[in-house]
């Protein structure tokens, strides 16, 4: 059975400089196992499946998979799914805003002239991490205690914990050792640093997570982490929007994430370009969703 397929490059500052997401539309009839199998096969950090909404307030419903794991929310899949949905010829119920239904509820996506912006969802877990966890992450990152400025939960669904380091150079040099993160709760790890005033961007971000085999992967550009880090930096008084974050530098990407707004009205955005368009043969469905 053929389903509409799009691959979207999200947050890139230039062609093939962002984070790709695979989007399968008209996903009714696919079982959970079939979605996981397709997600693993794409071998991208996330793969999404578009479905009819279950509420009249939404334009569509999306299920988001990170290889084998289903996520209630993720940032670049949100923008990529919205771009794919629009590319398939759909029109939002409200002009200029697409409303996505996902595991965290309804997420608005603002349609800008050059970029898409999602409304940052609230944190489901926040606050400082325990001293023992901070020491564990310090050792896993291969940095000194003096290089760690702060560390906190910044979880808006995927399970992020963030560590603020003393410099961009320190962030770009870290090579995390996943074996030293003995508590699996802390294995979705964001590492950030404020840029110097003369830099092109304001914040440097890296994101790490384990794959299905337990190996560490680095995400090229991560919308959900940037959203939650923005909330953390603002309420802790370290940085306030508007600003631009860079991510993917070590992976030779040029991710640019634009953060605007304040408080509970933060918007996180960037470019989202369809780079692959066609169909995918998903076989014969075995169960409905």
UniProtKB/TrEMBL annotation:
One cellular component term from this protein's GO annotations in UniProt: cytoplasm
NCBIfam families: PhzF_family (TIGR00654)
Gene3D superfamilies: Diaminopimelate Epimerase, Chain A, domain 1
Organism: Nesterenkonia sandarakina
Name of the protein: PhzF family phenazine biosynthesis protein
Coiled coil: none
GO molecular function: isomerase activity
Organism domain of life: Bacteria
InterPro entries in alphabetical order: Phenazine_PhzF-like
